[in-house]
Amino acid sequence: MTFKDEVDRRKGDTSKHSSNHSSKQLDERIYCDYSRLVRLQAQVDGFSFLPQRKAGSALSGRHHSSFRGRGLNFEELRHYQQGDDIRNLDWKVTMRTGKPHVRSYTEEKDRSVILCVDQRSSMFFSSVNMMKSVVAAEIAALTAWRVLKDSDRVGFVISRHDNIEYSMPKRSQANVLSNLNQLAQANQALDVSRQDSPDVGMAALVRLLGRLKCRNNTIIFLSDWSGVTSDDILHLKHLQKHNDVLGVLIADPLESAFVAMHSADIATDSSTFTPWVVGDGDYQFNLANRQQMEKARQGLEQHHQLKKQQLLQLMAVQHLPMIELDTQGLHLEQFKRAVGGR
Fold first, then answer.
1. Is 311 helix (H, G, I), strand (E, B) or coil?
2. Largest Cα–Cα distance in the chain?
3. How far from the centroid of its chain's Cα atoms is residue 99's Cα?
4. CA-CA distance, 144 to 98, in Å (whole number)?
5. Tens digit of pLDDT for each residue in 268-287?
6. What's the sign of the alpha-carbon dihedral 177, 183, 187, 189?
7. Nearest to 75 by CA among 91, 56, 59, 88
8. How far apart are CA 101 and CA 90, in angstroms?
């Protein structure tokens, strides 16, 4: 049985494969269901996104910032300093103390969150519990509901296998539901036979955000970062100048440590050896002996560790935060802890 056959079996699909998954009973480990993404609204407690940037806009809103102005929130009473606005003088305190005092205020600022969700073919993979694409979709839905609960704006950039879809940030439940529906459709369109268009990828995604001239946003990238280059990371650094950028690396355990062979497989008796068959959807290769398997394991581990180290090093050099999640089914709790939740 091929991997594609196993996927179809788990989905309960006894007919030919169809692009319309909505009428089928989906295995939530392989494909995310729209109703599941909606139900995640009930799990938004226990964490929050705290604004970390100084506000750069004069528009009023709800989040505290270090921007000084004539806002609604009183901060302190202090001695007058040269350059202070005389309209902020507190005449009663000035008369009582004989020294000029001013009242200092902080304004509140709105915050928009843009969720960049990778749903390319490389995300359609897992060796344990859940596909990387499902992990990304569920974290995006959880984050969207949390942002909406905080009465902030949330937008989506969905990187499909064939195109990139953008939805501007809005403070609207209907907008979130619409985007979650689009996200579920993009997720269910994935298949082992899909091939990515050359017009999608991290480079195209970063160029799109650059054209949008994003300012004062929190931008969260949910991806396995497949195909990312140092130039892409540098462009993210440019986005960081005017936004908060958070990277979420979704990795599968098999990518960093090839599944350990059973004791029977590593025994010296070749009669107990179980051969492995690996494939990419088009071609298959039989690892007929222990030496071939060990060579493949070492090559996969070295390739993934090098890619991961390069990514983390680039992010660290550019002072860009990174969270790592896995596909073992505990991603919601992992994400909440990583962003400071209980």
1. helix
2. 97
3. 53
4. 53
5. 455 555 666 766 666 777 76
6. positive
7. 88
8. 6
One DSSP character per residue, 73-106 reads EEEEEEE--TT--GGGB-HHHHHHHSS-EEEEEE
Q: 322 pairs with which residues across the strands?
A: 247
Query: Residue 137 and residue 323: Cα distance in Å, rounded?
Result: 16
Close Cβ partners of 168 (under 8 Å, ≥ 6 residues apart): 155
CB-based contact 135:176 (threshold 8 Å): no
Q: Report the predicted TM-score, pTM, of the whole model to 2 decimal places.
A: 0.70
The label of the residue with tokens 């109703």 reads 35
Helix (H) / strand (E) element for 323: namely strand 322-325
Beta-bridge partners for 116: 157, 221
Count CA atoms within 13 Å of residue 216 on its CB side.
15
User: Within the chain, which residues score under 50 in pLDDT?
Assistant: 1-3, 11, 13-23, 51-60, 62, 64-71, 259-268
Pairing of the two strands 276-279 and 284-287: antiparallel
How far apart are the C-alpha atoms of 327 and 52, rounded to whole Å?
A: 29
* Residue 49 parent element (H or E): none
Backbone angles phi, psi at 283, to 5 degrees: -125, 155
Strands 164-170 and 276-279: unpaired
Q: Do 46 and 59 form a contact (C-beta atoms < 8 A)?
A: no
- The separation between CA 147 and the C-alpha centre of its own chain, rounded to angstroms, equals 14
CB-based contact 136:119 (threshold 8 Å): yes
pLDDT attached to residue 136: 97
Instruction: Determine the 3-state secondary structure of 151 from DSSP.
Output: coil
DSSP annotation of 258 = P
Cα distance between residue 160 and residue 163, in whole Å: 5
CA distance 91 to 160: 61
**Residue 320: its pLDDT value, please?**
82
The two structure tokens encoding residue 55: 């506000």
DSSP 265: T
The secondary structure of residue 58, as a DSSP letter, is -
Q: Are the C-beta atoms of residues 88 and 103 closer than 8 Å to each other? A: yes
What whole-number distance in Å separates Cα of residue 89 and Cα of residue 87?
Answer: 6
